[in-house]
Write a structure and sequence with these properties.
This protein has 335 residues and is an alpha/beta fold. The protein has three domains: 130 residues, Acetamidase/Formamidase-like domains (Endonuclease I-creI, Roll); 81 residues, no CATH class; 117 residues, 2-Layer Sandwich (Double Stranded RNA Binding Domain). It is 52% helix and 24% strand. A five-stranded mixed sheet has the order 6-5-7-8-9, with helices on one face. It has a four-stranded mixed sheet with strand order 1-3-4-2. It starts with a helix and ends with a helix.
Length: 335
């Protein structure tokens, strides 16, 4: 009875401030089951227990946020697996950051709906809730804005006569579609049906449009500097083919991919011979000589002897171009 007298004034103060009062009677229904006032089909809920009221509330908020974020993270990881194939890892990371920012805004709507003090253990129990309807409305609005953005990008791509500009517009649409997938994953967590709001245009379909357009772009590889490695010519051409472009002769080309390779023997360090290479590619319009973009990459390799180190450096250059040339050229188109 003394404990009840001790905490009764605090409960009255909290009630006057509009905060949830500390319940001192029997266990509330939300402690171990579904709350009648905050049913699961209308609210996401979290629970926390601690020796202080403040810590119990923090743990309840954290419990709800963790459930929410983990389920979103799983959905985003599944989406990331799809878009990483084809050099889209960077786009996925950007998307995750944007989705995370929006998720933080949604989670800020969490409120403490109940606090209960256990007179036996002297612990506080807190009950956190997040309105599904309120959070869903915010995310649905965001999805609507992204859908408009995708349609505008697709329209720009359809109207573009320049194939690189078309790829650039489609790339923006793809980025928006990836971003949308993240928000959709968030909404599916909140939506009791688990459906969210389906998109009329999938990220996969936009990616197919990009792939089809890239095959129409005729690019002639041209070695400007080979660093003494005659194999660089075939490496550059192979990188174009791996990127999905149509590598043609100079007569049939619309664009020229100029490649430069410099190789420097660093010498022997700690028992290893080191070779440093620098690869530079520039995409140039054949007729006007306008440069559409330039990208440079550093490469290092080592071996027991200088000749093998040089060979390994060329192998690394070949791997790099096969992996990075496509996103680089697509980046030129989008810039």
């Amino acid at each position: 009875m003394g404990i009840v007298r001790k905490f009764l004034p605090l409960a009255l103060i909290l009630s006057a401030l509009g905060m949830p009062a500390v319940a001192l009677g029997g266990q509330p229904d939300w402690l171990s089951g579904e709350s009648a006032e905050y049913p699961n089909d209308q609210y996401l809920v979290g629970r926390g227990e601690a020796s202080t009221e403040e810590e119990a509330q923090n743990r309840a908020r954290g419990d709800l946020a963790t459930i929410f974020e983990v389920r979103i993270q799983v959905a985003n990881e599944n989406a990331t697996t799809v878009v990483q194939s084809g050099g889209k890892e960077q786009l996925s990371r950007q998307s995750s950051q944007q989705v995370s920012a929006r998720t933080d805004k949604v989670i800020s709507g969490i409120t403490i709906a109940g606090i209960w003090f256990d007179p036996v253990t002297a612990d506080y129990h807190a009950f956190a809730v997040l309105s599904r309807a309120q959070a869903a409305a915010s995310l649905s609005e965001e999805l609507g804005n992204i859908d408009k953005e995708i349609q505008q990008d697709l329209q720009a791509a359809d109207q573009a006569n320049d194939l690189l500009l078309k790829v650039g517009a489609l790339t923006k649409a793809s980025q928006a579609a990836i971003r949308r997938d993240g928000f959709q994953a968030s909404l599916k967590v909140i939506d009791p049906s688990g459906r969210g709001v389906q998109s009329q245009v999938s990220q996969a379909s936009v990616q197919q449009m990009i792939d089809d357009t890239l095959k129409r772009i005729r690019i002639a590889p041209e070695v400007v500097q080979d660093g003494g490695a005659k194999a660089f010519a075939s490496i550059l051409k192979g990188g174009l083919a791996a990127a999905g472009f149509l590598a043609t002769g100079m007569d049939d080309a619309d664009l020229v991919l100029e490649g430069k390779l410099t190789m420097t023997d660093i010498g022997r360090q700690e028992g290893w011979n080191w070779m440093r290479a620098t690869v530079e590619v520039s995409l140039v319009e054949k007729a006007s000589r306008r440069v559409r973009g330039t990208q440079t990459w550093p490469v290092k390799a080592s071996a027991q002897d200088a000749r093998t180190a040089r060979t390994r450096a060329l192998i690394e250059v070949e791997k790099l171009l096969k992996q990075e040339l496509r996103p680089a050229i697509v980046g030129f188109a989008a810039s």
